[in-house]
Design a protein that fits this description.
- It is found in: Cytoplasm; Nucleus.
- This protein is mostly helical.
- It is built from 55 helices and three strands.
- It has a domain at about 430-520.
- The protein has a three-stranded antiparallel beta sheet.
- A hairpin with a 4-residue loop joins strand 2 (about 605-610) and strand 3.
- The protein is globular and about 95 Å long.
Length: about 1050
């Protein structure tokens, strides 16, 4: 290692720690260059070993984790042999908990590579020897490492089965709760990973009694994630039908029964126990048939993911004959599988299922009419999913479907009813008003019958379903209001412990019904309802009651507005008391010589605070706390003038909630801050509406003060929060705030927000580095082929935290561009090199689409010439038209159309090249309507920009075969602008289409929710065309 290289790395590591965006960005760029060389890993290891500064050591370890997988095999064998014992020594000597964790993570990365090759012979003795360590962090690391390595190299671990079982046994009996918790997870991983090793499994199964002891302790300490994970392992063991398991299962069953019957245990844990018992019941008897059912269910889920990733013509259409065969088969497993497969296909093949809705509906009706309960149960669930994913086409058959679904609800078996009820509730939720009104009588009659049953869970479903009906039917629900209120009146005031969940649901129900009747009918009820609600929160101290009562408060304030003035003060007090309460938090103080352990679950409800205290929180209390914070935001938005007096008191506690240890609370807090800003902006509005680019516009002192506080909180979250979900929500809130208050109010914070957005694009925001593993950069070309193969197998993009983070950061960037106008162009130009890296084929298609769409939207809203960046963007767009992903094709059409109207340098040659790429998409039957809509929008913008140089007559002939716009309503403006232009410049070509244009635009005005300005322009054109007929 050269001295100058070490000095350069140290300088840039220090740069990362500077509170200056430009310095951080410069350091990032330099390190990206430096880290392309394998020798850079040696330099980082040097700093981990010898730097006197904790921050430098930790940062070096974080960067090393990101690059070592790629660099490790490129290091010389001498270097590798030196590094391995060095890290064992560093780990054993390190006393700082956070740094020790980082060193441990590096060791695991090395072990993943070296152990399968048999190259790190000292690691396994070191690992199992940690059982004797006096440091609980060492013992917890041991358990965590075993769990991790079992996912990558079960063979090496299996070779040491006796030592493994001994270590796990000691871990389960450890005096420290965190070690026992880690051991519990490690045992579960071992049982799953080594299921094929008969002798090892036999030894592991003997640990079940000890596992149950740890689980009892976990339940007492409300460590629900560990308990739920263990029940999942028990499920797998039960399904394995292994004879070795049978000796221990009676104890697990007895334990599960005790857990399920204990009403004082959290509901999520009890549910897991019930699911295990259900598994035991299902797997008793004919195992061959059940194996087939399980196989079909798994295949259905696989088809879902394939349907989401590949064209439906490769998935749905080849399966149509199979579905028909299953419907006609006498094999009951195929009858059970039929609705399961249809349910899963509806996620990814929705458009093709719409085109074949007659077949799909008949298959579901067939399943609903079967005698077998499992078939009908699966069919009900499929009905719920189809109503959501194939909406509204599926509802054409509601008159045939409803009688069969309702018939299932007459079954005397409550367990069966509950499953059908769950599906029916989801079905009702997705009904529009016009769809619910014709069947509301039969629905309410059935719900009334269910309310008379003795089973409390059935009653809860009935109340939830009535809520859904009330919300969907609005004023048409009014005739049922009195009877429902009469039925639930006693529940609203009950204090019977076993009925409190029904009380909670009753308040949810009455809150939903408030909008269904005239205000004058509901208004007299408010005093008694509010008294009962307030009393329940004050006296019952039940989290579920509090949660639903808070939501009830929000609905009434939202509906009655300032009429609720007399109740605002006591409501706010209860909400704030709950929001800041820690009654549901369990604190476990460790002795001074204990060090907080490795946290392998970023999503759990357990964390460590700075005083070495282990924290956990009940799910029910967490839901209550989140409901309180959410309702504070609802009240701020609904009655801003009434809320203003309480703003200061709320703000005092907001900062603590923004750093609360559970991410759900931080998530809701970000939304609440946004609501506070909206309220203050409404009460103290600017003198005039904001103008694009006017960064000097005056701002009220009240809003200015709140913004200073709010953006300090936002900056803290963006800089230090580890949860991508919370950071994503923060970006989303900032985007909405920018759109609301404009450039003048947001000016002091744009640089910091823009810098954070850029860090997301570069993958360097703290939440990305704190939780990420390996990353891919330009030096990792050898991995690109594997990435391409995996690209189409990923799960739902919208649920991916990395996609969500980029999506909301992009929304933030678009809103900044919207308020900045042409002044944003410099930032865009500086960001493009980083954005282009995310458009490579090795990047997941959802990320590529997000980046291309963001750039296009920014160029659109800036409203300035972008000729200087057109060439590079044009190539990205043209390449995108050839992409396998329809998402990428769609946004590429949008980008190319925007470039045509925003770049003075765009020429006829560009337009011709785009048309050659777009017309195959436009004329294909393969793509969803939204893709066709963007292709139409692209062609229209090309005509706007090059109308005198393109064959407009031929283009229109093709275009009108695809109009009108069906899904992406924003493209209607592009269609209008083109048609309006042609009436002024090429009347003879456009005039023959006038009848079709009038029909199309009149339909759009009547049946689609258009932007007000666009609708006004369309009305004007239609009036003119009608008069000139």
């Amino acid at each position: 290692m050269a001295t100058n290289e070490i000095a350069e790395v140290e300088l840039n590591l220090r740069g990362f720690l500077e509170p200056n965006t430009e310095v951080v960005q410069r350091a990032t760029n330099n390190m990206n260059r430096i880290l392309k060389k394998p020798s850079a890993s040696l330099i980082l290891i040097h700093f981990i070993q010898s730097s006197p500064y904790r921050e430098i050591k930790h940062l070096a370890a974080v960067l090393l984790r990101k690059k070592l997988v790629v660099h490790w095999t490129k290091l010389s064998s001498k270097d590798r042999d030196t590094i391995k014992p060095m890290f064992i020594d560093l780990f054993l000597k390190e006393t700082d908990g956070l740094l020790k964790k980082s060193i441990a993570e590096v060791m695991i990365i090395i072990a993943r590579v070296e152990l399968p090759l048999g190259e790190w012979k000292t690691f396994t003795p070191f690992l199992f020897g940690l059982s004797e360590s006096q440091n609980p962090l060492d013992r917890e690391f041991q358990m965590y490492t075993i769990e991790t390595l079992l996912q990558n190299d079960r063979i090496t671990i299996a070779k040491n089965a006796t030592k493994l079982v001994n270590a796990l046994n000691l871990g389960l009996g450890d005096q420290v709760a965190k070690v026992r918790s880690a051991a519990l997870r490690a045992v579960g991983s071992a049982m799953i990973a080594l299921s094929g090793e008969t002798d090892t499994i036999r030894q592991l199964i003997q640990l079940i009694p000890r596992m149950l002891q740890v689980l009892k302790s976990s339940i007492e300490n409300e460590m629900e994630d560990d308990v739920i994970t263990s029940f999942e392992v028990f499920d797998d063991l039960a399904e394995s039908q292994s004879p070795a398991v049978f000796q221990q299962l009676p104890a697990v069953v007895q334990f599960s029964i005790e857990v399920a019957a204990n009403v004082n245990i959290d509901s999520s844990i009890r549910t897991s126990a019930l699911e295990f018992l259900r598994t035991m019941i299902e797997f008793e008897g004919n195992s061959d048939d059940l194996d087939d059912n399980y196989l079909y269910q798994t295949a259905g889920i696989a088809l879902r993911y394939c349907g989401e990733s590949f064209s439906a013509r490769y998935i749905f259409h080849p399966l149509v004959p199979v579905l028909k065969e299953f419907a006609q088969s006498n094999d009951m497993t195929k009858q059970v599988a039929l609705p399961l497969i249809i349910q899963q296909l509806s996620y990814g093949c929705a458009e093709d299922m719409r085109d074949n809705i007659e077949l799909i509906a008949q298959l579901i009706l067939h399943s609903l009419g079967q005698q077998d309960k499992i078939v009908r149960q699966n069919a009900c669930v499929a009905v719920a999913r189809l109503s959501e994913n194939i909406h509204p086409e599926f509802y054409r058959y509601s008159n045939q479907i409803f009688p069969l679904v309702f018939k299932s609800l007459d079954d005397p078996d409550d367990a069966f009813i509950l499953r059908c009820c769950y599906a029916l509730e989801n079905f009702i939720v997705n009904l529009e008003r016009e769809q619910i009104v014709p069947i509301i009588d039969s629905v309410m009659s059935k719900m009334g019958t269910l309310l008379q049953r003795n089973n409390i869970q059935v009653k809860e479903f009935a109340l939830s379903a009535i809520c859904a009906v009330a919300l969907a039917s609005e004023s048409d629900f009014a005739p049922y209001f009195d009877s429902v209120l009469s039925t639930i009146r006693d529940l609203l005031i009950t204090k019977e412990p076993n009925l409190l969940s029904l009380r909670a649901n009753a308040f949810e129900c009455v809150g939903s019904m408030a909008k269904a009747v005239p205000k004058e009918k509901f208004r007299p009820l408010i005093p008694d309802l509010m008294a009962a609600a307030h009393d329940g929160v004050e006296t019952l101290h039940n989290s579920e009651v509090n949660e639903y009562t808070f939501e009830f408060y929000g609905k009434l304030v939202e509906h009655f507005g300032e009429e609720m003035q007399a109740y605002i003060q006591p409501i706010i007090k209860q909400l704030m008391d709950s929001a800041i309460s820690d009654d549901g938090v369990q604190r476990t103080k460790h002795s001074e010589d204990q060090i907080s352990g490795i946290d392998n679950d970023e999503e759990s409800g357990d964390e460590e605070d700075d005083d070495n205290v282990s924290l956990s929180v009940r799910t029910s209390f967490l839901d209550e706390k989140c409901a309180a914070i959410h309702t504070i935001g609802v009240i701020a938005q609904s009655v801003p003038k009434l809320f203003i007096p309480y703003t200061e008191a709320v703000i005092v506690n907001i900062e603590a909630l923004a750093s609360y240890f559970h991410e759900d609370v931080r998530f809701e807090t970000m939304i609440a801050i946004q609501s506070l800003i909206q309220a203050v902006n409404e009460v103290f509005p600017p003198a005039t509406k904001w103008v694009k680019g006017d960064f000097g516009a005056p701002v009220s002192e009240q809003l200015k003060t709140l913004l200073q506080f709010s953006f300090q909180v936002f900056a803290q979250v963006l800089s230090y929060d580890t949860s991508k979900s919370v950071v994503s929500r923060t970006f989303g809130c900032i985007a909405d705030i920018i759109a609301l208050i404009g450039p003048g109010a947001i000016a002091p914070y744009l640089e910091a927000v823009g810098g954070a957005v850029l860090q997301v694009v570069m993958g360097n925001l703290y939440c990305q580095t704190a939780t990420s593993g390996d990353t891919h950069d330009d030096s990792d070309e050898e991995d690109e082929e594997d990435d391409r193969q995996e690209d189409d197998l990923n799960e739902d993009d919208d649920d991916d935290p990395d996609y969500q983070l980029l999506h909301y950061a992009s929304e933030c960037m678009i809103e900044i561009a919207t308020v900045s106008g042409p002044k944003f162009k410099t930032f865009l130009e500086n960001s493009l090199p980083h954005l282009f890296k995310l458009t490579k084929a090795s990047t997941h298609h959802s990320i590529r689409a997000c980046v291309i769409g963001t750039v296009a939207e920014i160029i659109k809203v800036m409203e300035t010439d972008c000729s200087n960046i057109m060439d590079k963007l044009f190539q990205v767009g043209i390449s995108g038209l050839k992409d396998d992903s329809s998402q990428v094709k769609r946004v590429s059409c949008f980008l190319l159309g925007i470039l045509a109207i925003r770049c003075v340098s765009a020429k006829k040659e560009h337009a011709i090249a785009v048309l050659e790429g777009v017309f195959p998409i436009l004329n294909s039957d393969e793509y969803e309507p939204v893709v066709i809509d963007n292709a139409i929008g692209c062609v229209c913008r090309l005509v706007q920009a090059q109308s005198h140089s393109l064959p407009v007559a031929d283009i229109l002939k093709n275009l009108f075969t695809k109009l009108p716009i069906k899904s992406d309503l924003e493209e209607i403006e592009a269609v209008f602008n083109t048609i309006n232009l042609l009436y002024s410049t090429q009347y003879n070509i456009i005039s023959p289409y006038t009848p079709m244009i009038l029909q199309m635009f009149q339909f759009d005005l009547q049946h689609k929710k258009l932007d007000e300005a666009v609708a006004t322009k369309i009305k004007t054109l239609c009036t003119t065309l009608t008069q000139n007929k």
